[in-house]
Amino acid sequence: MIPFYDADAVHAALDYPSLVAALRDAFAMAAIEAPVRTAYEVGTPSAPGRLLAMPAWRRGEALGVKLVNVFPRNADRGLGAVHAVYVLFDGTTGAPRALIDGEALTNRRTAAASALASTYLSRADSGVLTLVGTGRLAPELALAHAAVRPIRRVLVWGRSIDKAQTVAARLCRRGLSAERTSDLPAAVAAADIVSCATVSSEPLVLGHQVRPGTHIDLVGAFTPAMRESDDAVILASRVYVDTYAGALAEAGDLIQPIAAGIWSEDRVCGDLRELCTRTRCGRAGDDEVTLFKSVGAALEDLVAATLVLERGRGSELPA
Question: What processes in GO biological process is this protein linked to (predicted)?
Answer without folding.
Answer: carboxylic acid metabolic process
